[in-house]
Design brief:
This protein has one domain. It is 65% helix and 10% strand. The protein has 5 helices and 4 strands. The strands form 2 sheets. Strands 1-2 form a two-stranded antiparallel ribbon. Strands 3-4 form a two-stranded antiparallel ribbon. Helix 2 runs antiparallel to helix 5.
Amino acid sequence: MKNVKGLRETKAAFKQIRAGLDVPMRASLRYAARPMWREAEKTAPFLEGVLKRSIKLVRIPKLPAGLVGYAIGITGKARFYGHLAEWGVPGKYDGSRFMTRAFLSQRDEVVQRFRQHLPGQIEKRLQYLAKKAGGR
């Protein structure tokens, strides 16, 4: 590996590409996850208003560089009730697994939407970066 020419420049170029993909990846992930999010809201079993309003699509913080992630989860005070609704109480109430069912029923659509949306977002980002670089 000592005699590889251009390795340093190639590594630098890949870092720039990876950094430039964060914006289109985030946009595509948000777009793709929407059906799963809506399904979870629609099938929340009880405390309908509180629980349904608490189901959010949130960005996962503190991921390693170059990784982007989102999660669909229950936020705020309803997190406790969401846990009970999903998993139940042993011996008293079987959980409805509404979040699990939302995932299982929508996962193929989410993958398809992501696959369709990402190329357009990358192109949009490239045009933006080209315009930004040309405008200086």
